[in-house]
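Following up on my earlier thread - several people asked me to post the actual chain instead of describing it. Fair enough. Here it is, all 817 residues.
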Amino acid sequence: MDRNAYSGSGPRPGVAGHADADIAVGEVLPDFADAFPFERFNGMQAATLPAVLDTDENVVVSAPTASGKTAIAEAAICRTLAAGGTALFLAPLRALTNEKEREWERFEELGYSVYVVTGERELNPRRAERADVLVMTPEKADSATRKHDSRRYSFVGEVDCCVIDEVHLLDSTERGSVLEVTVARLRRLCDPRIVALSATMPNVEDVAAWLDTPEETTFTFGEEYRPLPLEADVAVYSHGENAFADKYRRLFRALDLVEGHVREDGQALAFVSSRQDTVQAAKKTRDELTERDVPVGARGDYDFHTDAADLENDTLRQSVLDGVGFHHAGLSRADKDRVEAWFREGKIRVLFSTSTLAWGVNLPARCVVIRDTKYHDPLEGEVEMSPLDVLQMLGRAGRPGYDDRGYAWVVCDRSDAERYRRLLSEGKPIESRLADVERGTRAGEDGDGQDVASDLAVHLNAEIALGTVGDIEDAMAWLETTFYYARAQQAAGYVAGDELRERVSDTLSWLVDRGFVETEGLAVEPTPLGRLASDFYLDLETARRFADLADRASFDTFDVLRAVAGAPEFESVNTRSDEEDAVAAVLGDRASDLADGPRKVLAICRAAMDGTTPAALRSDAWVIRQNALRLLAAVRAIVDRFGDACRANLVCRVAARVEHGVSADAVGLTAIDGVGASRAGTLAAAGFTTPAEVVVAGADRLSAAGIGEGVAERIVEQARELPAVEVDWGSLPETVGAGERELHEVTVRSTAGDARAGIRVTVNGNEMTGKDCYLGTTTVPVALFGGDVEELTLVVEVVFPELPLTPVRETRTVTVR
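Reply from S.P.:
Thanks for posting it. Predicted structure:
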């Protein structure tokens, strides 16, 4: 793609003279005017358009929240599309990828394809390859770029322009390093143009230096570019008897702050820590506003009352009529749309939300209050809200066209007040977290006391697995492509020079010691375990533990679940008091040595196998189960590589049961494409347990069992694609003489589809022959020895390490005469 090309219908005038004035969209992007939800670019947007549309340079824009940065991203995308290229939009949250998919139906209407790639969706490589606009999170882009040389993910190497939304995510302790290594890798793979957008940050020049962005295409817009002035402050509260009481004291403090504005027909947006808290805070606020005689309800509005009746959420339906609403990712899309529309129209006066709303939907309010500065994360436990989130939320204060300014507060403990006041007055420089020593990879647990940054080890292992890093010189060169290196040139406290080289050397030694990397002279290469850790996006200690499990002589279903529950990915999960009884009901006394968090994960996974997750555990169950399934896929691959096919098949069946919630007898049915928990249960109830039995039965019998006719036919067709094992004992005799030895061959074949298989032959429980192959048809040797036993019991076992099919066992007895 020629980045400078623009194929609009007719000449496009330059826009350099419009830096402080708005300009019509149709003047600069006539072919894409319908892609924008407004008719004119504002002054801030217009100031960036010469750089975005008239140059080939990377662009960095730092501007206040709600100033209109999204339109800059869309302009860059339009330029890419006009030149026939592919744009990648990196969204900070998975929920926002869904928002963009919905918003960018405008591009679809112009004939361009928008495709979202996230971990929760099944990837369609063909659609991804043909997409004009790709939307991903940094984590998914990291995972995809690690596999860029596979046919499935080759599309990620064809990106012409990468838009980084909220590039200040670089400063996130948990996610920042992922963003910087992913962008560095993209630049190495396909060198796309980078357009990076950020909220106001003091050190935008460091981001620009990292991205090789010249001064003329680096923009810093001050608070004067906010739609309205912002008055932000900190409010403290007095503690109650416990955390529950504190939560309500913070709520009452928040209501004290916004009450005057709400009485004056203003609106308030309050951020709380969880979905459940949005609901509970809304309920309490309805009662409190009634007691304070604050007029916010709309029950006299007949049309609104009628519209509210269409809400799917019963609690929300009652709440909005009192002028109080809540918004979180668990609501249906239709309910969220209605809440957003009613808030914009002023029918909802007080709205409670989780942080997702701050990063995504442009929904300003006269007042913004952050009630909770800490939140519960299912995987991390009690987490302090990041400074970036705080600034992002407060930036939503002020409604252009309705208010003359915005008001914002952080409600916090007195001990935290000064820290938040400093954040509000000075902002937060963006730092790199790539070599953050505070996040050491549990160094010292093995007694060596070595301090190595976990993020550096994980990402360095990935680059070694990719072949980017082959020795320490390559590693140092790779680091020079990261934001860490750019920031280290300007800021104190960063390791550089010989000290950084020593840290990289220590990290490489750590990787070698733990089996992820091997050395040959000065060169380093990935081991199979290192490749698998990279491919499956594993914490390195998790990969090591899974490899240790594979080395065990045997393990069972509970051992597999325990290994997953004890993975470092789940180490910060905590168990709330109302969940303890539910965990005990599922596990009893088993795994009592595990900490409460891992026991909760174990209970959720074990209950999921039977489809009986207790109500008390359901709030976190989906997130935990999705992460557990990713880890189970990794266990299966590691056991397949370092263990054997039989145990890999066991893990495969465990994963299928956790995913679908089916019995051990019916789990093989889930191997059929289109058969999940419900259909597997229906088929099992009718007596079917294997895909082969489904094929023999045919569509008519499936229909009789309660499966729709068309679906039954598809299920039978899909079942025919799976293997159906047949064992032919050939010339194997019924008897063998005492002291005689005979060698025979047994034929194992699939009468339907082919698949990787492990075949094992045992005689009286002792393994005689083992073979891994791609089953079609194969033969295995069987030796008979008439020893001092009366009979020989031969068992041929066939397992499929990549399919959740129950092992097939055929037995033959030979008498010793």
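Residues 2-19, 438-453 have pLDDT under 50 and may be disordered. That should answer part of your original question.
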